[in-house]
Each structure stands twice: as C-alpha cells, then as structure tokens.
Amino acid sequence: MTSHTTTISTKGQLVIPAEIREALDIKPGTRFAVLREGNQIILRPVDKRFIDELCGITAGGPSMTEMLLKDRREEDKRSKW
Question: Which of 7, 8, 9, 38 is least crowded, fewest Cβ atoms below 10 Å from its Cβ?
C-alpha cells in the first residue's frame, strides 16, 4: 500500500498525487465514483472494469426507472403547492 497526504481545497477539490495517477493511468477528465464505507472515502475510476462489476448488481430488484418516475411524480406534487 502506498501512502500519501493531500489536502481538500476550499472548493472541495482533492489532488491525487502524480505517482498514483500514473500507476492507475488516470488522465484529466477521468470520472470517479465516490463511495463511503463507514468513515472511509473510496475513489474508484469509472472505467470498463468498474462498469463490468456493476452489471447485474440490481437484477431481480425493484425497477430503478419506476422508482425514479415515482420520485419525480412526488416532487411535482410537492412543487405545485
């Protein structure tokens, strides 16, 4: 495990040390998933491997589309008052 220290800017930005960016082939514009596990923050580059790991994760569960549509309808009802 490699250890580095970095600081959050006043805008909430974080610099990933060059050694880590180079080792993981992180380029400007790379998108990240930001995950929380207890008191840890995990940054995962959103790449093909990450997407492949997510495939099927919600299979057999509730329809995300239906859940989002339901939330949108409820928001619309609240905003009309």
Answer: 38
